[in-house]
Amino acid sequence: MEGKIIVITSGKGGVGKTTATAALGAAIALEGKRVAVVDMDIGLRNLDVVMGLENRIVFNVVDLAKGRCKVRQASIKDRRIENLFLIPASQSDNKTALSTDDMVRLCKKLRQEFDVVLIDCPAGIEQGFENSVIGADEAVVVCTPEVSAVRDADRIIGLLYARSITPKLIVNRIVPRLVASGDMLSHKDVVDVLSIELIGLVCMDDFVITSTNTGTPIVLDRDSRAGQAFRRIAARLLGNTEIPIVDPLEDLKGFWNRISSKIGLRKT
Amino acid sequence: MDQTVSLKGVGDGLRLHIGVPMARKELLAEISPLFDRIRQLASGARITVDASGEDPDLLPFLRDFLIREYEVAEVIPMEAEQPRRQEVRKRQRDVDRSWENRKSDVLMMCGRVRSGQKIQAKGHLVLMGDVNPGGEVIAGGDIIVLGSLCGMAMAGQTQKKDAIIMALDFRPTLLHIGQQVSSGPFGAGNRSPEYAFLREDRIEVADYLGNPPFGRLPWPEFRP
């Protein structure tokens, strides 16, 4: 059976594409699938750092696409999670090092080796984006609740539709406290504008910062809300549509209700 | 043949033209052959009499004669017909101006205009859907968005000053009407239908409901 290729993109930089790719890759691998995460941010490699595999890179995606090595040689096995592999970007080339034809060939090879291939798309809509989406079957758009991120995500969604890919949406870095006070867009506003299928909501979480710095998968942390959210998203990506999407605001309400009932402001 | 008296088919009846006043007997002598020839047609027809000279008894006389002899339906004077013909003519003019005979150049679209996408219409543009921030809608005439307008809208390109931009949820980032540009802020922001128009070369925004732009027109008019 051929694997499926999912591109993770956003348009705007710094919204959490790389973190999401690493987390989803780990979560899908934990579900028992053979997963490759491919860093397409050629020249600005950092998925390897986020995954804590930076000192094991020998070959990279450019070598693989140009046929200078085999898939097995370029894919780096994760230290903790079985079935999870990283294909790192090249740090010395730039985005034009690969052509779309190279990518189509590469995607064909990867499909045969893995159940799921996650492509970490670079920011922007230039060659790097073209290369990332050319071979993809599905797309996940990561967006933060900011006006600028929403606009770029909107543009990306238009471009994905033009390539006959129906994208799914992750709203990342929600701060429930700010949403409740009206200082941040709610995920409903974002979904209203983008109007694509929502596949998960991820809260702002300090664990993400520590885990990306130390290179440990956040999904292994049972206390991390973001990590657990990514595990649910991974399950939904694999076709388990019955898992409900948790509204982070509901949690907040629950929390305040509990506090206020405890100190006697509210009767149970 | 002497053309002092003639009979002509007009509309749904016949018109009897009497060129010169003449005695009753002579008149009957002139008329009878005409009606004899079309006895079948004359039966049940409406006869309009267009007679010169002022003879108040002529019409009753002719009416008696024609109804008796030829069983015509009615005999009416020319004057009576005049207002009706005028009325008909007026309506004809209205018909020429009415929408039924006009074709309008309207581009009707549905869906969502996303950031970076652009819809351009030569004439009016109707969009059943939203315009997202960063999206652009451009029209030679009016722009009507049946949804949220959050992007840029250019109406009346390039010289049409009476163009309007209307949206059910009016929150544009930038508006052009004709040669004028405005970047807001627009409207009350309460998600109500509003529209923008030009008043003295300035773009203004008003509520669409309660004060519609064409509410004072006496009847529906074609929008060129």
From TrEMBL, chain A:
Keyword terms of this UniProt record: ATP-binding, Cell cycle, Cell division, Nucleotide-binding, Septation
Origin superkingdom: Bacteria
Keyword ATP-binding attached: yes
Ranges of residues in domain AAA: 4-155
A Pfam family it matches: AAA_31
Any GO molecular function: ATP binding
Function as written in the Swiss-Prot or TrEMBL entry: ATPase required for the correct placement of the division site. Cell division inhibitors MinC and MinD act in concert to form an inhibitor capable of blocking formation of the polar Z ring septums. Rapidly oscillates between the poles of the cell to destabilize FtsZ filaments that have formed before they mature into polar Z rings.
Protein name, entry field: Septum site-determining protein MinD
Natural source organism: Desulfobotulus alkaliphilus
From TrEMBL, chain B:
InterPro entries in alphabetical order: CAP/MinC_C, MinC, MinC_C_sf, Septum_form_inhib_MinC_C
UniProt key word Cell division: yes
Pfam families linked: MinC_C
Keyword Ribonucleoprotein in annotation: no
Gene3D superfamilies documented for this protein: 2.160.20.70
Any single GO BP term: regulation of cell septum assembly
Subunit structure: Interacts with MinD and FtsZ.
Family: Belongs to the MinC family.
Function: Cell division inhibitor that blocks the formation of polar Z ring septums. Rapidly oscillates between the poles of the cell to destabilize FtsZ filaments that have formed before they mature into polar Z rings. Prevents FtsZ polymerization.
Name of the molecule in the record: Probable septum site-determining protein MinC
Source organism of the structure: Desulfobotulus alkaliphilus
Gene: minC
